[in-house]
Fold:
Amino acid sequence: MVNADGRRFYDEGEDLWPKRYAIWGRNVAGQPGQIAYSLWDAKVNERFLPPMFGPATAPDIPALVGLLGLDPAAVAATAATVKEYNAAVRPGAFDPSRLDDCATEGLDPPKSHWALPLDTPPYYGIALRPGITFTYLGVRVDSSARVLDAGGRPIGRVFAAGEIMSGNILSSGYLAGFGVTIGHVWGRIAGEAAAS
Structure:
């Protein structure tokens, strides 16, 4: 992953995707122009879900990032970034289903897992921008799922569960499937409280 200046800016292999995908919106939002570019090569192209609109494809990295709209200085920087990254990759047993031992050495930021050289054409890439999944805001509730007013007092016969009250539980990051979990758990709490 590189920013508009052609530089890596975060550890792409920090943790399994269900534990880290939500932080990438914040990471990308903090980059110049709030844009980043995901780059990969032919050897991993079939290992993940394809992007919605299809990637750009090219026989080399400079041509690829040129197609993605990076300016000439960023094209050169990206080529240097990929060369530096490839030189830092240390061999290991690649396993996308777990935290494997394929990592970089001496690279800042590191790539902690799933580090494979970007060296097998054709190359693929997509531009990414942040979006809003939720705001970590919503209504405030008590332990019975009763909605509270600005003074912290329960509002009569108003209950909440799920995403509308997720800010009460989530503070940073988001685990895949957590919306379903808080919908079920807090739905039951709210239902029992409302029934009583």
Remarks:
- The beta strands are 2-3, 36-41, 56-58, 89-90, 103-104, 123-128, 146-148, 154-159.
- The chain has a mean pLDDT of 91.
